[in-house]
Here is the input.
Amino acid sequence: MRSMKYELVHRPKSIAVEIESRDFRRFGETGDVVLKSPSCNASGQLVNISMNGLLGSFHHHNALPGLLEKVAVGIRLRSEERIFRVYGTVVRIQVAGTAPDSEYIEFAVKFSGLVPEEKHELRALVHALRGRVRKYPYF
Here is the structure.
């Protein structure tokens, strides 16, 4: 049996590609979030918000929506008296924080079906946050 010897002609280069799919900047803000659907009525805390959607944290003992479930969303920022209402779809569910035994679950909701008045209200709300809160540009 004959052995074959191979030589590496070119050393492979590591490739790091970052793809950013965010269309809008996220803004961290404290406030209350309610997700309503036929299967749930869950109250939680707002983590961040953008023109496209929000991330909210909910206690795992609540009745919670499922992935890709359509929900009615109520948002009340700590700095505002009014409640902003919109519709969306749950697009991600994850454990809040880094501890695997966390009692909180985060839900990412992508807004959908915004009528012009809702878009205007949301734009005004996000614009007001732009100058006064921490920004989460790519996370």
User: Anything to note?
Assistant: The chain has one domain: 26-132.
